[in-house]
Amino acid sequence: MVIPMEMPGERDKHAWRREILARRSALSAAEHAAAAAALARGVRALAVGEWVCAYVPVRGEPGSTALLEELRAAGARILLPVTGAPGALDWAEYTGVAGLRAARFGLLEPAGPVLGAEVVARAEVILVPALAVDRRGVRLGRGAGYYDRTLGSARPGARLVAVVRDEEFVDRLPEEAHDLRVGWVLTPGGGLRALDGSEE
């Protein structure tokens, strides 16, 4: 069941995060699996090119490794983030589920060689984790700033795609000067959609 996320009045990012994380933790395994399967089907709409930056969903994030396998089946080579010191993310190539290892913050990341932060510029498509995204492309992350620091190094014209549940695609989120907008959203029910980036 989809419950609208919109609430009257202004809310700050902390309030948004609390609300969304609480809703995610209340989802059943069946609801999560159904959304993950829909996202894996929806990612087929992407013309991915040779390189795609993605991530392994954890802690209730929408999606699954099936989405990564769909990208591989389409011929893409996939870069996944590797955690390190605060700053821009490092990346390593995904070679399949068997090549993942447990990492900091409960994440899964490739066990292969770390390729550095600059390889994000190879990707024509970057799938970005988000707690929510609005119709202007404003993305709400977890607040650590890793992706805001990383996306500034993306190649010009790269498609930045926020992956969220349907109810996490909202009309308007709070925005700060350092927030980088995305141009696309992928949701289980709506598939892949371009965002207009307008202020209205």
From TrEMBL:
GO MF annotations in UniProt: 5-formyltetrahydrofolate cyclo-ligase activity; ATP binding; metal ion binding
Enzyme class: ligase
Chain sites annotated for binding ATP: 13-17, 139-147
SUPFAM superfamilies reported for this sequence: NagB/RpiA/CoA transferase-like
Protein name as catalogued: 5-formyltetrahydrofolate cyclo-ligase
Pfam families xrefs: 5-FTHF_cyc-lig
Species, as recorded: Nocardia farcinica
Positions bound to substrate: 56, 61
Catalytic reactions on record: (6S)-5-formyl-5,6,7,8-tetrahydrofolate + ATP = (6R)-5,10-methenyltetrahydrofolate + ADP + phosphate
GO annotation terms (biological process): folic acid-containing compound biosynthetic process; tetrahydrofolate interconversion
Cofactor(s) required for function per UniProt: Mg(2+)
UniProt keywords, alphabetically: ATP-binding, Ligase, Magnesium, Metal-binding, Nucleotide-binding, Plasmid
Known EC number: 6.3.3.2
Keyword Metal-binding: yes
Family (UniProt): Belongs to the 5-formyltetrahydrofolate cyclo-ligase family.
Record keyword Protease present: no
InterPro entries assigned to the protein according to its UniProt record, in alphabetical order: FTHF_cligase, FTHF_cligase-like_sf, NagB/RpiA_transferase-like
